[in-house]
Amino acid sequence: xxxxxxxxxxxxxxxxxxxxxxxxxxxxxxxxxxxxxxxxxxxxxxxxxxxxxxxxxxxxxxxxxxxxxxxxxxxxxxxxxxxxxxxxxxxxxxxxxxxxxxxxxxxxxxxxxxxxxxxxxxxxxxxxxxxxxxxxxxxxxxxxxxxxxxxxxxxxxxxxxxxxxxxxxxxxxxxxxxxx
Length: 180
Known about the structure:
Elements: H1 5-10, H2 17-33, E1 36-37, E2 44-45, H3 47-51, H4 57-75, H5 80-96, H6 102-110, H7 112-125, H8 132-167
């Protein structure tokens, strides 16, 4: 690694590849979520909700940023529960971002890139250890995802059962009698 002459003369340590990656991720996060301010307010937004208006484009940029964060988190040996939280923040952004109009508002408010970068930096510096709230967040999102899959299946089964017994007056899906 080359040391810049100005840095060497001032006793400033050379910048590592990880420092450059973190600077780049801060810049990307700023552009994607806080680059602009609504006049006369404290509301900030970036290119992410704007690009989200073009189907797929906002999702791709968020996915690329999340991938970079995950690679960095692996290199920094960030705890697995925090990596799970990074992924779930991005998945929430991606899934809820698919809802027309409401998803764009969610992108404007949630700012998953900033949340993920803050999590990564806190744990990389050792400022924060994984806490109960990290586990609660991950488990709550996973429970919600499981419920989102199982609940419609249970409702569909209930409706089909009511249709076959109430509407038709006979059981279509009853077990066949055993053969002698």
